[in-house]
């Protein structure tokens, strides 16, 4: 894991803006990363389960998934032409902009991708700007979006709106300093440089252009930005985990179905704070297993972990406690 360093001037600080909503093209691409997660975040599990419950929907996704997995592989780079700025206006405006990508840009970005990953033969016509290849890509992405993202639009919109409202409040009350302070530990703000964990080491010099912050439902852990530093600066950031939970879990059996019996047992065991060793003893599992389950729960925002001398102490967060209680007031924003 590297670090992204974003360098601000006084003009940039005056031009920091928050997008009104999520970007459907970025969200579509980010779903492919969520399919590759070795440990799937708990908040996304209802999405996975609903997708797989309808074979017709997964069939509609298949072609787009195949194309995206070649164009957006795991690694340090994927082409910027897949996420044009017009995507913020609507999925159709974004796809129209993608269809109009200049031939020279297609060739340059796909050639850069080929330096990192072996590409299938169907990419060559795309790199040459073949209109039929571009239309085929756009059609497959439209089908994928309709199956994998569009049915969850209301859920995503509501969650992103709550997160954005929190950010806007921080910005109104404390300016850019308050905004970035409210986004710790995701961001580390040491004026005039904003730092965050990133897939590679990278410096982004804004040079007076400002920065657009775009909240994302499917972004997880670390933000993303465009690869080309000459494009208008944009930062896609993950909303807080607590804002993704929209429905209460009212029974222990329901909680076990959501996260698995073992992790549910760990969460219930933490109705009082406990160390990893104490968890292992209470649940009769190995300390290594207890540590793994605690890591997943911590990443889901359900517990927090701190050192207590030589021990590591785990404690429920308000979200974790609300999940155990099945409290609608705590889980709906």
From TrEMBL:
<dbReference type="InterPro" id="IPR000835">
    <property type="entry name" value="HTH_MarR-typ"/>
</dbReference>
<dbReference type="InterPro" id="IPR011991">
    <property type="entry name" value="ArsR-like_HTH"/>
</dbReference>
<dbReference type="InterPro" id="IPR036388">
    <property type="entry name" value="WH-like_DNA-bd_sf"/>
</dbReference>
<dbReference type="InterPro" id="IPR051011">
    <property type="entry name" value="Metal_resp_trans_reg"/>
</dbReference>
<keyword id="KW-0804">Transcription</keyword>
<feature type="domain" description="HTH arsR-type">
    <location>
        <begin position="254"/>
        <end position="328"/>
    </location>
</feature>
<dbReference type="InterPro" id="IPR036390">
    <property type="entry name" value="WH_DNA-bd_sf"/>
</dbReference>
<dbReference type="InterPro" id="IPR001845">
    <property type="entry name" value="HTH_ArsR_DNA-bd_dom"/>
</dbReference>
<keyword id="KW-0805">Transcription regulation</keyword>
<dbReference type="GO" id="GO:0003677">
    <property type="term" value="F:DNA binding"/>
</dbReference>
<keyword id="KW-0238">DNA-binding</keyword>
<dbReference type="GO" id="GO:0003700">
    <property type="term" value="F:DNA-binding transcription factor activity"/>
</dbReference>
<protein>
    <submittedName>
        <fullName>Transcriptional regulator</fullName>
    </submittedName>
</protein>
<dbReference type="Pfam" id="PF12802">
    <property type="entry name" value="MarR_2"/>
</dbReference>
